[in-house]
Structure formats: structure tokens, C-alpha cells
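Could you please review the protein record set out just below?
***
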Amino acid sequence: MEASSFQSIRIRLFSCHRYVQVPNTAKITVPAIAQGCRLIVLQQQLGQYGLISDQFITEFAYEEYQTPTALGQSLMVVPRASAVVPGQTNAEPVAIHSNHHNMVKYTSREDSGYKTVSGHLKDMANDAIKQIPQRWEAEKRSNEGSSLRSQFPVYHKY
């Protein structure tokens, strides 16, 4: 092996096939490799979603308060930075004024969390009522155009 401060290793774990450069002195553990693979897969999925995000309305919900744990500690389960994907089209961050455990448990229809979530759901449903007929019409035109193209084939000379 060549004397170098870095070496190439092949990782094959969780369907994650990547070459990575790591220092010769680095201690590579299975959990660290698994975490790295999950991040690579997540980045790929976010990139793919970014290409089609303009076709959807996306609401990124996150809690504002820490959630108590069984050990007496508290933590943010889904902080804003984790919930909100930057650069997505038609996307809006939605703060829920609760901890993770209680963010969808409402005492009444007057609860601020209930009003926030139900308001966003109503807006999305109203938008869907407008969008669905338009998309069916676009699909119909696309199918009609496809059948016309099959009736008039185009030949190319090379």
C-alpha cells in the first residue's frame, strides 16, 4: 500500500455503495458507517424531491419546545433545522407551539396547535380541489397527443 495519510475503503452497508477517503489513523465503526450511508441516501432523496417539489405544497412542521425524556432530561426531537428542507418550492415551515409528544394532541378546536394544523390542511384541500381537474385535463391532452404521434411516425435520416 502506498504511504499516504489517506486510504480508500469500500463501504457496502444498507445498500450504500460509495468510496470514501478516510485518514489512516481514523477509527471507523459500523454505527459511523451506517450513519454516513443514511446521510448519503437522505441527500439523494432530497435532491430528487427538489426536482419535483414545485408540483406539491409541502408543510414542514416542527415543535418549539423540548420533550421530557424518561431519564429526566429534555430534548428537541425535531428541531426547525431538521424539519425544514431549504430550497424546496411551495414549502412553508410550520411551528407547532408544543413539545414532540403533544404536538398533535389538542384539548379542543380552540387550541392554537389545532387551529394551525387544521388551517394548513384546509388550505391544502382547497388547493387540491382546484388542481385535480387541471391535472386530469393535462393528462388527457398528453394522452391525445401521444395517440396522434403514433398515427404519424417521424423518420430521421442519419
In short: The radius of gyration is 24 Å. The longest strand covers residues 6-13.
